[in-house]
Amino acid sequence: MSTCLIIPVAPDEEEQDVALTVNSFKRFVPNAVVYFGVDQDYDGAWLGRYGSVIRVDGFGVGKALNAAVIEALKDGCEFIVKADSHIHFEDFRPPLWLEVAYHCTWDGTCYGASTAEWPTMDWLFTYGQYPVLPMTCEPVLAFPSTIAESMLRDQGCVYCVPYWGPELYDFTLTACKRYGWCTRQARWRARHKHRANWSHTRIDRQFPREPWMDEAKGNPYFTSMDIAWQIFLARHVRNPSRHPKYNQRLFEIAGKYYQMKYVPGYGVEFIYDRLGIPVKQKIE
Questions:
Q1: Mean pLDDT across the chain, nearest whole number?
Q2: Are 231 and 157 in contact (CB under 8 A)?
Q3: What pTM does this model have?
Q4: Is the dihedral of CA 138, 21, 16, 58 positive or negative?
């Protein structure tokens, strides 16, 4: 079986952390093919030593992931693993489902996996309480290529939210509500090297041009997060204006430049109810 590792790399990521991710994974899958999704303005020449660099038009972690996973599908990968660029894999077993690693922080605190509270999108840590998760943003996901192929065929994209924030929530929720592939907590473990602060290299730079920038002022990094949430709402909430993260102005701007089409399938609240996950406020 062929396995591909896809990693989005921000401008401030350090070589030692990327090497940690790649090398620790290859202890378990020596023949894994590695793809890095990077922004248009990424200039780290060292990255090519560890895998293939896939550059996107503009910027955005969702865009980078989407480009990398499409490249992996072209190469016939049977299993795809998405990881942050600062991960230590302590174990790995090929997934039979859509799975997240048993998650640990760098200092050893392990909480299993998390899902999102609805509709606030705050984190709800499971500690193994919910082995099946409809929506998660864990730093490591693994899935058979069937999932990505289905999404690409039906939607034209796999990671369809372009910017940082809800891109992983969207991926795992779409898989669950549309295809019945709800995320499971896997038997393998990964450790996340969390950073306390973002560097100025990431958020205070001359960003590649995006079409909405003339209409939405402010730092593009943070504005793009707000736009990403509006796209997420359009995809997963039948009444977006009732959701706590709804912003009418940004919702309208996003609608000019992105596909704001609702993902058919089971509703969020129906899925949560069946899994016994509490819902704070019903809005669908």
A1: 95
A2: no
A3: 0.96
A4: negative
